[in-house]
Each structure stands twice: as structure tokens, then as C-alpha cells.
Design a protein that fits this description.
- Mean pLDDT is 91; it is low at 361-366.
- The chain has helices spanning 2-7, 10-23, 35-43, 46-49, 63-66, 69-79, 102-107, 118-127, 144-157, 171-179, 193-199, 205-211, 222-237, 257-266, 296-299, 315-319, 351-358, and strands at residues 28-34, 54-61, 84-88, 111-114, 132-139, 162-168, 188-192, 215-218, 243-245, 267-274, 278-287.
- The chain is 39% helix and 19% strand.
- It is of the alpha/beta class.
- Helix 2 packs parallel to helix 13.
- The protein folds into three domains: 2-59 and 171-245, HypD, alpha/beta domain 1 (Rossmann fold, 3-Layer(aba) Sandwich), CATH 3.40.50; 65-170 and 257-299, Rossmann fold; 315-358, no CATH class.
- It contains 17 helices and eleven strands.
- It has a five-stranded parallel β-sheet with strand order 2-1-7-8-9. Strands 4-3-5-6 form a four-stranded parallel β-sheet, with helices on both faces.
């Protein structure tokens, strides 16, 4: 409780807002990468309190939102196979594929279970050797170690009925893809705190230097967010482009070495398709050759046809920071949490869902 009080302290919030209003001298556009940061900005009304010169843009840091439609289609294809159990995090069930969602497949009788950890899926496979258990392994660097560990544990237990359908993504290449977009206006980043707990900060140094953008690893409480914004703006106002660490209570420079050791043992870097963005080189992970028996795509020879997203849905523009949720003509009308057109309206970390829940009546554009 002391921790929560400290990082939600109204006096500290007021102090950082005052410092920002005194510091800023021109317009700056900053992208907060993580959906949790977007959620905090909108829920706590921080967008309305910031100086009007500071424009916050919402990034692609929501794992559910960037999982490609093809991965959902493959999971649904697997779910309809006899004697197969699909395990997943809860948010994934409502993400639309090209022909429905996992929740709809479950309603039709498919064996789909919600777990909080892939190790629970390994336990299920161990207890039910007659079943094929597949874990839908999605997410950023934050979830990658646990997903890799599940494969390592299944291997050590000699399980032949466990596999993973992977859509693991890496954040730094996605940031570069966004910066390389001619339409981007981003001048600085709030880095994703939970991702950096695992990966550290060192791999962001070349991005800050190459693109001349400050990057500050930032937590999720109101004081975290405002301090992170202040650290970015301070650099911008002084012409500095460095990697900072606001979230030092959790993020170490080199990250979590043991978690990274497990990841590097099981996985290798690969190109990865991002929903709404497209293929980004070296932005994902795949199982190494010696662990291919745990790759559900290979094990079940999965194939899907063309999986183009709904052309009406502007989720990709939102994930790239080109538009804001309320600039989408379908926001809050044809697209709602009850009937989402795109993944950012599904996940609790999605920008559209955050705006719908906390700010759909607001017309604030900064």
C-alpha cells in the first residue's frame, strides 16, 4: 500500500504537472508504447492535465492487439480437431479472426481453457497423456520467458502431447518500423516498463542515437507516467537523445539474465507479422530446431488461407500512432467492447477499449 500511495500521491502528481508546464516551450509528440500506460493516462485523466503542447500518441504495446489474424485462425483450426485442447490467456478468446473467435469456437463445443500461466497447460498435458494440449503463446518480451520455460519443462518431462502456437513479438524492431513510417510524427517514447524488466535497456541505445529520439523506460502509476514524460521533454528541450530509466525500481540495465538465458536456450529471433502493421524483420521469436517437436504449426501441419483484416477497421492506424481511437468513424458505434471490429477494442490494454471505458465522451485531442 505504501508503494501505491507513493506513486499516486496527489502532491507529487501536482508537482510534476507544474514542472512540465514550466518546462515545455513548444509542441512535442510522445508515444507511450505500452497499453498499460495508455490505460493509466486515460483512466486517471492525465491527458487533460498535461500542457496542451504535449501530444501523447498511443503505441502498439498490447500483445492481444498485435497478434495476427492468421494466428487466431490457426488456433481455431486446431480447436476443432478431435482430442485437442487449446489453452490461452483470457483476452485472446474474444480477438476476431477472419472466421470468428476462439470464444465462438468454445461455444460450439471446442475444448478451450483459460489459464494464467503456460505451466498450467504443461500440468494439464502431463495429467492427460491421451490429449494434445496446445498453448497459444503470445506476447512481448514479458511473457516470452514463461512460454519458453513451458517448452523446456515439457522437454524435461518427456511429454509428447504438449506444443505451443507462437506469436511472440519483440518491441525494439517495431519501434524502428514506426519511426521509419513517413507519416509518423513521434519525437520521443515512454518505453514499456514490464518489457524492460526482462530485456533491459541496452538494445534501445542504437534507436535513440539513430533516430534522435529520447526513450525513457516508464512505469504505470500516475507519478510514473508524469515523471517519464518530464524526463522525455527535458531531453527534447535540451536537444538530447538518450535512453533513460524512470522505472529503476524494477528495470535493470541488463534486464533479467536468467529469464533471457531460458529464452535464448529455447528460441531464436525471427521475422514476425504484426496485426495492423505487417511483417517486421527480426521482431519475433520461433522455436529452435532442437525443439521443433513442440511447434504446433509443424506438428499439426497448420495452414490458413488469406487472412486480410477488415478493410473498414482502422486498428492498424491506431497501433502505428497515425490516428487516435476517437478519430475512427466506427469507434463506439459499430465497434464496441461487446462487438469489437478490431483487437484494440478487445483487450483491457487496448487503446480503443481504454478510451471507450474512460473517455468516450471526451473530445480532448492531446
Amino acid at each position: 500500500m505504501k508503494y501505491l500511495n507513493e506513486y499516486r500521491d496527489p502532491e507529487l502528481i501536482h508537482r510534476y504537472l507544474k514542472k512540465l508546464h514550466q518546462l515545455v516551450s513548444r509542441q512535442w509528440t510522445i508515444m507511450e508504447i505500452c497499453g498499460g500506460q495508455t490505460h493509466s493516462l486515460v483512466k486517471n485523466g492525465l491527458l487533460e492535465l498535461l500542457p496542451e503542447e504535449i501530444i501523447m500518441i498511443h503505441g502498439p504495446g498490447c500483445p492481444v492487439c498485435v497478434t495476427p489474424m492468421g494466428t487466431i485462425d490457426k488456433a481455431i483450426q486446431l480447436a476443432h480437431k478431435e482430442n485437442v485442447t487449446i489453452c490461452s490467456f483470457g483476452d485472446m478468446l474474444r480477438v476476431p479472426g477472419s472466421r470468428g473467435s476462439l470464444l465462438e469456437a468454445k461455444a460450439k463445443g471446442a475444448d478451450i481453457r483459460v489459464y494464467y500461466s503456460p505451466l498450467e497447460a504443461v500440468d494439464l498435458a502431463r495429467a492427460n497423456p491421451q490429449k494434445e494440449v496446445v498453448f497459444l503463446a503470445v506476447g512481448f518480451e514479458t511473457t516470452t520467458p514463461a512460454n519458453a520455460l513451458s517448452v523446456l519443462q515439457a522437454h524435461q518431462l518427456g511429454l509428447s502431447n504438449y506444443s505451443v502456437l507462437t506469436s511472440q513479438v519483440r518491441l525494439p524492431p517495431a519501434m524502428e518500423a514506426i519511426l521509419n513510417d513517413d507519416r509518423t510524427s513521434i519525437q520521443g517514447f515512454l518505453g514499456a516498463g514490464h518489457v524492460s524488466v526482462i530485456s533491459g535497456v541496452e538494445e534501445y541505445l542504437p534507436i535513440a542515437t539513430k533516430y534522435q529520439v529520447p526513450i525513457v523506460m516508464t512505469g504505470f502509476e500516475p507519478v510514473d507516467i508524469l515523471q517519464g514524460i518530464f524526463m522525455v521533454v527535458e531531453q527534447l528541450e535540451n536537444g538530447r537523445y538518450e535512453v533513460g530509466n524512470q522505472y529503476s525500481r524494477a528495470v535493470k540495465s541488463a534486464g533479467n539474465r536468467e529469464a533471457l538465458r531460458i529464452v535464448n536456450k529455447i528460441l531464436e529471433i525471427s521475422d514476425q507479422d504484426w496485426r495492423g502493421i505487417g511483417m517486421i524483420p527480426s521482431s519475433g521469436y520461433r522455436l529452435k530446431q532442437e525443439y521443433h517437436q513442440y511447434d504446433a504449426e509443424k506438428k499439426f501441419a497448420l495452414t490458413v488461407g488469406s487472412t486480410e483484416s477488415d478493410k473498414q477497421c482502422l486498428a492498424g492506424e491506431i497501433l502505428r500512432g497515425i490516428i487516435k481511437p476517437m478519430e475512427c468513424p466506427f469507434f463506439g458505434t459499430l465497434c464496441t467492447p461487446d462487438k469489437p471490429m478490431g483487437a484494440p477494442m478487445v483487450s483491457s490494454e487496448g487503446a480503443c477499449a481504454a478510451y471507450y471505458q474512460f473517455a468516450k465522451e471526451s473530445h480532448h485531442e492531446s
